Amino acid sequence: MTPLRVVVALCLIAPFVAMLWVSSYARVEPKFAGMPFFYWYQMLWVVVSTGLTMVAYRLFQRDQRARAKSARAASARKEGGDL
């Protein structure tokens, strides 16, 4: 597993950990615009999750392109060596 894929995995896992750790946000204070922390924290994670998913997708695409380029180069070297 490449370091880039580890970052992708962390970007995708972070929202799950944040939402499943209920005791970290199961409270009323601090309020934001009159809304208890419990609710606005979860809504904030909707936005954060979207951003993290977008980052993970872009990083994964970059990793896929790098792997494809590497595979093409290895194939070209192999074909060149057989001649």
Automatic annotation (TrEMBL):
Keywords: Membrane, Transmembrane, Transmembrane helix
Disulfide bond among keywords: no
InterPro entries on file: DUF3311
Residue stretches spanning the membrane: 7-26, 38-60
PANTHER family (UniProt xref): BSL5891 PROTEIN (PTHR40034:SF1)
Protein name: DUF3311 domain-containing protein
